[in-house]
Amino acid sequence: MFDTMTFTKVVGGLCGAFLVFLLGKFVAEEMYAARVGHHGDEVVQGYLIDTGGDDAPAEEEEGPSFEEVYASADPGKGERVFNKCKACHKLEKGENSTGPYLYGVVGREVDTAEGFGYSGALEEVVDVWTPEHLSGFLENPAGYAPGTAMAFAGLKSVEDRANVIAYLDSVDD
User: Fold this and answer.
1) How is residue 56 annotated by DSSP?
2) Is pLDDT of 160 > 90?
3) Domain residues for 123?
4) Which Pfam families does the UniProt record give (predicted)?
């Protein structure tokens, strides 16, 4: 039923199909590369679609400052935002999880949660967790303290950050 000739035909068919695929890839790269000329190591694009915009970065709209938002922050809303943090942090003093406990974090010195092994990246950036420092860290942890072990993407909304910091500040005595 399955002799040497049939096997040879199947292998030859697969090799032939692979060869056609590679040749098609080569032809497609040559067609779509659209290289007009080389200037040193730079490849000049053969076609350019003018969108009418310039390459200058768009200015971000300045919203209210963190201090203004924090002054009117709502701890109740911050409790709901804190649900994102519960996977790694606990509010009970001394009860660490994947991350350190957050009881009394506002105003606490950095890297001082008892029994938690820190990465050391935070000490290089801040000394005390003020609301402003917490806001900067919560916006983009990896960007604020490069090398931190916190893998959270961050809270982009200044209102969410202010609310969760107000909630954390209201939890402790």
Assistant:
1) S
2) yes
3) 69-171
4) Cytochrom_C (PF00034)
